# Entry
Amino acid sequence: MKLSEWAARNGVHYQTAWTWAKEGRMPVPVRQTPSGTWLVDEPASEVSGRVVAYCRVSSADQELDLDGQVARVVQGATGLGLPVAEVVTEVGSGLSGRRRKLHRVLSDPQAVVIVVEHRDRLARFGVEHLEAVLSASGRRLVVLDPSESADDLVRDVTEVLTSMCARLYGRRGRRSGPPARWPWRPVRPPSEEVPAAARVRG
# Structure
């Protein structure tokens, strides 16, 4: 397989893959032909289905970290005898339930093995439930590094607190209703005060 095809299939920019090949950092075996073309030699798959690597960062300012994460996941999966058929990258909070790319991977019965670098790359909480559902359908989750990544933990916690505060104060505002309108009288300045005798005659 040509290096350009491998890069496109695995969600890696071609220039990045070419640099990895030149520097000997490719996560899969590569060789260069006499004409200078780089070819990727992927080992035969031992699983009946597709191996999908899922890589995620929490925000757009972390997108530069995706390439490194992709390289580590593909290399780790290959080292376990799991040649990656597809790399899925996504930008979104680990607390979000609206990650469309993750939904697509989880609902794809052909994605029999899902590989992530850290458990929280898949989801911040409830990964055990996802593992149980995958196992029940003959699929599995492979976590390369069992330690938790704390890179975006503060961001996720802040997001939870912000959401909770917005809901709490929203409920309070609806309960209390509009502010009460207290009765009031305009105060006349001293120059406009009406003498007491005039008030009596009137």
About this structure: Helices lie at 3-9, 14-23, 64-79, 100-106, 119-122, 127-136, 153-176, 196-201.
